[in-house]
Design brief:
This protein has 90 residues and is mainly alpha-helical. Helix content is 60%, strand content 4%. It has one domain (18-89).
Length: 90
């Protein structure tokens, strides 16, 4: 199995909010670091980090579900908007 190398660069004059102690990859927030550890280093984390990962994962899952529903609603509105415009103008 190969691991992907992520090209990350921190802009000059800024410091990352968190850095992975296993691969030294910088992250903009502690939540992103927690998600990274749970997905890329699951065999290295302890029980407390695993519980934090599960909490962060569930919160991220809720946010994604909400985004998907809003995106679907926008697509439906756009579709019916074009359909009504076609019916009126044709």
């Amino acid at each position: 199995m190969t691991t992907a190398q992520h090209a990350t660069a921190v802009p000059a004059g800024e410091t990352p909010a968190a850095v992975c102690e296993y691969c030294q990859r910088p992250f903009p927030s502690a939540t992103r670091l927690t998600l990274h550890k749970g997905t890329d280093h699951p065999q290295r984390i302890d029980d407390a980090e695993r519980a934090a990962f599960q909490d962060a994962y569930l919160a991220e899952e809720d946010d994604l579900r909400s985004f998907r529903l809003r995106a679907l609603a926008v697509l439906v509105l756009v579709y019916f908007g074009f359909l009504i415009m076609y019916a009126i103008l044709a």
